[in-house]
Amino acid sequence: MIVYKFGGASVKDSAGVRNLSRIVSDAGCRLVVVVSAFGKTTNALEKMLKLWISGDRSYAEHLENIFSYHISVATDLFPAGNPIKSDIDISFSKLREYLKSHTGTDYDFEYDQIVSYGEIWSSMIVASYLCSKKLNAEWIDIRGNLITDDSWRDANILWNESQTRVKGVFAFVNTDLYVTQGFIGGTVTGQTTTLGREGSDYTAAILANMLDSEEVVVWKDVPGMLNADPKWLPEAKKLGEVSYREAVEMSFSGAKIIHPKTIKPLHNKGIPLRIKSFILPLEPGTVVRQDVKVREALPVFIRKENQILLSILPKDLSFAMGDMLSRIFHIFSKHGIKVNLVEASAISLNVCVDNEKHRINSLTGDLRGEFNTIYNENLEILSIRHYTRESVDQIIKGREILLEQRTRGTVRFVVRCESSLPQDIVSL
After folding, report:
1. How far apart are CA 147 and CA 253, in angstroms?
2. Which of 172, 187, 217, 371 would bridge 367 by S-S if both were Cys, CB 3.0 to 4.6 A apart?
């Protein structure tokens, strides 16, 4: 049994769904197919959510555009009279009614209830299309099986409860093919949760672990794992094989090829991860596994965008260490803010975090009584694994460096975005 994960780029239109069907048909084994939302649906739902929660009634127009997009895909895939279009219409009607009858105040909670619909719609269409091609596909609502706590937008798996349910549902008794959703789960009380942005890879890894899969295949629009984002560095080269440890380091630094939590469930059972191109499905791609032959490593370039550098300074000039650091990081955790880079001096703590303004405003409000906080925004973290002098020169030439960290294997720079003008430090 193998777990296939298809991201939004692979199912952005009807041609993508047809291509998915061909890949699944050629698998020749039992499959669990994990599907992300179509194309840029998650982005579109996020935009609609912000309008709705702010009281802007134009959210309804954005929702209708998302509805038209899904109906157009379904219309192109299915003959007239196929029930899937009615099923999609009913699902959208439920969301419309929710939005009309609720007033959102908790952004993270509402995010999970609303943005999660993208995976429901895509998986419904994919499962129906596979059935129309005489594949005995069974659609599974993962929200009743992958059980989590209520940490909205970054839920934690309740492993024992989830494993019992997953093994009972994905039993391969009446079918050899299941279609389900990535990115989402559900609490024991039935509320929808999400596992973190781009979390469909993590869903695939969890299911692979619980079902003792032979491997996980993640289908992308690139030929495998590259040593840089080709949109940033066009000369990027494919990595043939990567160790679990290297993959974790890359994803933590900001590599977008896999979700940071993906590797651990696979490493725990020695399940390989294969990254392949849905455009060239016969190509071998990149395999991530435990035993990788040691060879001269290519520099790996990673860019983490949309960062803010916070500098936290005790008002009484106390040393920034010990109990003080513990209190500060507890406040970060309380507000669900993950630290991407940290540097401490005698009386200040500098951290880079994702630019999520509503969380940062809450954080600085809690810090204000004891600390002064200043920040720079419009920043990026540029990291190089296995760096050389030439590779460093390649990415920092002409850049304004605000902070630098080096270890034996990795160098990291906090730099201003090339497209932004220099700005003064701002006090929060």
Report:
1. 28
2. 371
Q: Report the pLDDT averaged over residues 17-28.
A: 97
Confidence of residue 424 (pLDDT cuts 50, 70, 90): very low
- pLDDT of 428 over the 70 cut: no
What angle do the packed helices 41-53 and 59-77 form, to 10 degrees? 150
Domain co-membership, 222 together with 346: no
CATH number of 308's domain: 3.30.2130.10
Same domain, 306 and 284: no
Enumerate the β-bridge partners of residue 154.
none
Q: Which of 46, 45, 50 is nearest to 92 (CA)?
A: 45
Tell me the per-residue pLDDT of 376-418, one tens digit each, with 9 for 90 and over. Answer: 999 999 999 999 999 999 999 999 999 999 999 899 999 998 7
Helix axes 14-25, 117-132, angle to 10 degrees: 60
Q: Where are the beta strands (DSSP E) in 333-370?
A: 339-344, 349-354
Cα(336)–Cα(351) distance, integer angstroms:
14
Please report, as a single letter, which amino acid is at residue 203.
T
Q: Which pTM value belongs to this model? A: 0.89
Structure tokens belonging to residue 388: 């050389």
Percent of the chain at pLDDT exceeding 90: 82
Q: Which residue has the tokens 């034996």?
A: 408
Q: Of 244, 243, 251, which Cα lies nearest the Cα of 268?
A: 244
